[in-house]
TrEMBL record:
Residues 13-117 form the Activator of Hsp90 ATPase homologue 1/2-like C-terminal domain. InterPro entries: ASHA1/2-like_C, START-like_dom_sf. SUPFAM superfamilies: Bet v1-like (SSF55961). This is Activator of Hsp90 ATPase homologue 1/2-like C-terminal domain-containing protein. It comes from the Bacteria. Belongs to the AHA1 family.
Length: 140
């Protein structure tokens, strides 16, 4: 098992970034087509039709958000940065070696779209089920 760590700086404040992570509406703006929450479980639906039910493991307002994600643990850590911005660290633990390269690259796609949505109110995804990660599209 391996661990992935990425950092990204956002000009948006931690409160706005946290809302994108912890709300169904926020997650659907940058991460998956749908990401509704019920009883502490997020029901993800992705453009290629794949689904996953991830349990929320920890939520600390404007600071941390952890969840079970495809049988691994994903941690989002937010830190107040200068000029009211946010330094976000994503840590994905227990990633199987066989999936590491795809997951490692996949998080870049998710984080860059998070930045586009948070800082520029722009969704970079194509939302086309015929043009997904499975077909080699980075803008899935």
């Amino acid at each position: 098992m391996k661990t992935i760590t990425w950092k990204i700086h956002l000009k948006s404040n931690p409160n706005d970034v946290f809302d994108l992570l912890v709300t169904s509406e926020g997650r659907s703006k940058f991460w998956s087509e749908k990401a509704t929450e019920e009883d502490g479980v997020i029901h993800f639906l992705f453009p290629n039709g794949q689904t996953y039910d991830g349990r929320i493991l920890k939520k600390v307002h404007n600071k941390e958000f952890h969840l079970d994600y495809f049988d691994s643990v994903v941690k989002f850590q937010l830190e107040q940065a200068e000029n009211d911005g946010t330094d976000l660290t994503l840590i994905n633990e227990n990633v199987p070696e066989s999936n590491f390269l795809e997951v490692h690259a996949g998080w870049i796609s998710v984080l860059m779209n998070l930045k586009a949505v948070a800082d520029f109110q722009c969704d970079l995804r194509n939302h086309d089920p015929k043009r997904t990660w499975n077909q080699g599209y980075a803008d899935n």
